[in-house]
Design brief:
Helices cover about 50% and strands about 15% of the residues. The protein has helices at about 10-15, 20-30, 45-60, 75-85, 100-110, 120-130, 150-155, 175-185, 195-200, 205-210, 220, 240-285, 300-315, 325-335, 350-360, 375, 395-405, 425-445, and strands spanning about 35-40, 70, 95, 115-120, 135-140, 160-170, 215, 230-235, 320, 345, 370, 385-390, 415-425. The protein has a 7-stranded parallel beta sheet with strand order 3-4-2-5-6-1-7, with helices on both faces. The protein has a 6-stranded parallel beta sheet with strand order 8-13-12-9-11-10, with helices on both faces. Helix 2 crosses helix 3 (about 45-60).
Length: about 450
């Protein structure tokens, strides 16, 4: 409405870009009517700073002392603390993490704090200490964390009490429309009438209903200075040994699956089927992931090493992602043998150390960064890289896009090249087709 004029907090106005100011005003407008929404900006456009500006404004306008809460994946909570220190030092911010006794002490004195930051796993453990308190606002970062309405996380976040709730997610739909419904069930309870309502609606019907409550801008639309991102598929051939193992395993999986479907039915066989598909994907990456004492080679591994050496010779800096930490271990060994130095990050890397390594890499230390897809696909700024290699495919394209956008974001000065490695004639081609279908659904509703 034209008569509503929301100005960003003075302390933050100078760092907000024009499109970020619009995002701030959009959040303030919805909050004015006690509504929430999903800030679904493309990765790297500053959803965090827009949410921080909103939090500061809401706390300043509150008639009495109020608190805000940010819930994020465990790997991102210290990112939030760092951004608060940088952009909103006037807030008394506390990360609710560590041992149970420390968390209990913090939560017992939460009225003395402006902003609490915790993770989804810790929220599940400490929910009894949160649900009795009413927050001014709650921000759910990477809200796809509760895309499954039956999950424990989804059940717990619904128990939080707040005046307004906003979700941040560049990928509010990763697989199905029901995932978007689960997020709305948290930020705007009752928006869809029942858990099955979304399933009965077409993509166009859902798009029209959610349009006022989702704000999405793409980097290409608002960042004229950002270089392009090119995405290409590089196809490799299985070696003769790989192909023989792949076909034998495929035949055995088909036989076992047919028998399981006859005896147990589809629902009880789903885990067995998924396990079989995973074995095929591992063989595509490197048979050593599946077969002990395998002494042969891997077509995709050979392609990767040739690509890495060629890009390094051309003074490129690379991020290499794989979902299998055992695959990353094989790549580490191969790089060691070639005398190529690298950084390494997986799910066991502590959050403070992740930030430290990211800063060192961005500062020019080493030219290769090996990263676990799920552990390092969010929350890292790695604009020091200009080449992203996705060694193996994930089931939905959103996770891969998040990984690629570790490099393609504000601050990048070079064109970013994204390479997706696919083994020809295998399940990886089928996964790629599935990704394209899911991307089409996302574009219909969100874009």
């Amino acid at each position: 409405p034209e008569n509503l004029d929301f100005t960003p907090p003075a302390a933050m106005a100078s760092v907000l870009r024009d499109y970020q100011r619009f995002g701030f005003r959009w959040m303030k407008t919805l909050a004015h009517y006690q509504l929430g929404g999903i800030l679904a900006d493309d990765m790297g456009l500053g959803k965090t700073i827009q949410a921080l500006a909103f939090i500061v404004s809401e706390l300043e306008a509150a008639p009495t002392k109020a608190q805000a809460l940010v819930v994020a994946p465990a790997s991102l909570i210290y990112n939030w603390e760092r951004e608060c220190t940088r952009f909103a030092p006037q807030l008394k911010t506390v990360v609710v993490a560590g041992k149970r006794e420390r968390r209990r002490t913090i939560l017992e004195h939460k009225e003395d704090v402006d902003l609490l930051i915790t993770s989804y796993p810790l929220l599940r453990r400490d929910i009894d200490s949160y649900q009795s308190h009413r927050f001014q606002t709650v921000i759910f970062d990477e809200a796809q964390s509760f895309k499954n309405h039956q999950s424990q996380t989804a059940q717990v976040v619904k128990r939080l009490r707040a005046k307004t709730r906003f979700a941040l997610s560049g990928t509010p739909i990763e697989n199905t429309l029901e995932e978007l419904g689960s997020i709305f069930d948290v930020i705007l309870p009752g928006f869809f009438s029942g858990k099955q309502a979304v399933r009965r609606m077409s993509a166009e019907q859902v798009r029209r209903r959610v349009r006022p409550f989702i704000l999405r801008r793409m980097k290409r639309d608002v960042l004229d200075e950002l270089p392009e991102k090119t995405v290409s598929v590089h196809v490799s051939e299985l070696t003769d040994e790989q192909k023989e193992l792949y076909l034998a395993t495929l035949q055995q999986i088909r036989k076992n699956t047919q028998q399981a479907l006859i005896t147990d039915g589809f629902q009880k066989s789903r885990i067995k089927i998924l396990a079989g598909l995973t074995r095929l994907r591992q063989i595509c990456c490197h048979p050593s992931l599946y077969l002990e004492n395998y002494a042969g080679s891997s077509g995709k591994m050979d392609q990767l090493l040739a690509t890495v050496e060629e890009r390094l010779n051309n003074r490129r800096r690379l991020l290499v992602f794989s979902q299998f930490t055992s695959m990353l271990a094989l790549i580490r060994d191969a790089l060691d043998r070639r005398g190529i130095s690298y950084h390494y990050l997986d799910g066991r890397t502590p959050s403070p150390q992740r930030l430290e390594m990211a800063n060192r890499f961005s500062g020019g230390e080493k030219d290769v960064f090996l990263i676990s897809l799920k552990a390092g696909g969010t929350g890292l700024n790695l604009t020091g890289a200009d080449t992203v290699i996705l060694y193996d495919l994930w089931w939905n394209p959103a996770v891969e896009q998040q990984a690629a956008d570790r490099a393609h974001r504000i601050g990048q000065k070079k064109t970013v090249e994204v390479l997706k490695l696919i083994a020809r004639g295998t399940i990886e081609e089928k996964i790629h087709e599935l990704q394209q279908k899911k991307q089409s659904l996302f574009d219909q509703v969100i874009q």
